Fold:
Amino acid sequence: MTKQIVVTGATGTIGRRVVEGLLAKQVPVVALVRDAAKAPQGTRAAVGTFEDRGSLERAFAGADTVVLITAANANAAEQTLAAIDAAKAANVRKIVRISALKAAPDGPTDNTRQHGRTEAALKASGLTYVILRPHYFLQNLLGSIPTIKGEGKLYWGVGDGKMGMVDTRDVADAAVVAALTDKFDGGTYELTGPASIDYNAVAAAVGRGLGRDVTYVPVPPEAAGEALRGYGADDWTVRLIRDYCTAYSKGFGDFTTGDVERITGRAPRSVDDFVREVLAPAVR
Ligand SMILES: NC(=O)c1ccc[n+]([C@@H]2O[C@H](COP(=O)([O-])OP(=O)(O)OC[C@H]3O[C@@H](n4cnc5c(N)ncnc54)[C@H](OP(=O)(O)O)[C@@H]3O)[C@@H](O)[C@H]2O)c1
Structure:
């Protein structure tokens, strides 16, 4: 019998594609969703939240594996610890965890530190696990479409820091493989793109893909954080962006690994692939 897999964060950037990848392989998927109407097509919706422990145990009951994705927020560690406990109580065998690059309890951002704490808890839980630590998402660039389109400018706060940015499609594809095989069990993988590049190179790639000039305009990390407040970001998120930008401008993200290829069997998508296949169609 095919093993049942639960995907949390199933309506989000990574989760949506993980669901699609599993369904394409005829794997039965339960989607943990806060709103049943948003459950991805083809899944069985389990309505619940990370704050409602009973809903987690009900969602996880009968599942072999949970692909555990939480949103970046001030309470992510508590949410994750609740999900790990519920998975144990429901006799889940394995968790594939979407973490974040260089997760560590003493990392430079609260997100890094929360993922560091929860990775340690998962390792200590006795559950089989695979930890996937994505680098900065290329898809974050979609938030800059208004200024790319309106001004031909890409504002961001990472100075000339280089980053091995990753396409979320590769992250999701790796999660699907990690969920369906035991080959990567017990491992921690840093998922990056094929090259570590600065934002001038990112802007050049965006310009190439759109057939117009696009220039990177560096702003202070504080300004990058504050700019998001205008889009409804809370204080925690504003600080998070400031702290990530500060770390990236000092080289925190300047690395690549072969882990996407190790897991998926093919090279990670480049910034040019992302611009051609995702950003340019969204701009037009
Ligand atoms: N952005 C980056 O560059 C980056 C890089 C590395 C790692 N990461 C990590 O990636 C993860 C986020 O993944 P993502 O971008 O795919 O997520 P996302 O698009 O922000 O989606 C978040 C998902 O979590 C669900 N959710 C939010 N609060 C919930 C709650 N209280 N109970 C149950 N479900 C809840 C949302 O459901 P609704 O539809 O109901 O809102 C949604 O499905 C974070 O752990 C972050 O640290 C991000």
Observations:
- Residues 205 and 272 are 6 Å apart (CA to CA).
- The chain has two domains: 5-134, 137-166+192-254+266-284.
- The pocket of NAP is lined by residues 9-15, 34-35, 38, 49-51, 69-72, 98, 100-101, 111, 134, 136-137, 140 (CB under 6 Å).
- The longest strand covers residues 128-134.
